[in-house]
């Protein structure tokens, strides 16, 4: 280091957005590789749909539930 230079402070690696992108990429690969029709039985109904739609719905529901739990925890900790 020469005279007059300040040491460069390293910033912590933002692991949450990186992990989020990895999970999103894995979910998209899983969703797009499963295009076969699949029977879905929920309570008293039965529907046949492409598996990728079922996986996409499941992924979105998981994201919504995670967001709701995070919001609830943040309110409780205030």
Automatic annotation (TrEMBL):
Residues 33-71 form the Lipopolysaccharide assembly protein A domain. One of its GO terms (cellular component) is plasma membrane. Pfam families: LapA_dom. The chain crosses the membrane at residues 18-35, 47-69. Keywords: Cell membrane, Membrane, Transmembrane, Transmembrane helix. It comes from the Bacteria. This is Lipopolysaccharide assembly protein A domain-containing protein. The lineage of its organism: Bacteria, Bacillati, Actinomycetota, Actinomycetes, Micrococcales.
């Amino acid at each position: 280091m020469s005279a007059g230079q300040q040491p460069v402070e390293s910033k912590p690696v933002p692991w949450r957005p990186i992990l989020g992108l990895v999970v999103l990429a894995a979910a998209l690969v899983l969703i797009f590789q499963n295009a076969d029709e699949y029977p879905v039985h929920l309570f008293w109904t039965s529907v046949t749909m492409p598996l990728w739609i079922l996986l996409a719905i499941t992924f979105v529901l998981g994201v919504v539930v995670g967001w709701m739990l995070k919001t609830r925890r943040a309110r409780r900790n205030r």
